[in-house]
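Example (one chain per record):
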Amino acid sequence: MLDMSGIPIYLLPGYSDLRRGINGFVSVITNIMEMDVTLGGLYIFCGKRRDSIKCVMWDKTGFLLLQKKLVGGYTFAWPNTEEKVKEISGDDLLAMLDGIDIFRRFTPWENVRMRPGKAV
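Predicted structure:
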């Protein structure tokens, strides 16, 4: 497993054409995300079916392209917002790769208030 501590992790909300290669993704990072890929970081893209992601990383000597494809009908939870870039933590990335929806925020039970007179 890659050690992602200290590496900024960015993803592009919405869906991407995963037929692209490294040059295509670097173009997206530069032109759409408006970031400089050579400053470091891991950039993550998700396909329309949400069963596959591709990641691009600059390691000071060249680009690295990683892909994970889920099988068995599983899909990645993926944000579909108007943001150009969303930054996540290394722990969030590992949880996302394990199938956890890191984009849904749940209200802790102690903060849930029931309306009186309503049957559940």
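Caption: The first strand starts at residue 9 and ends at 11.
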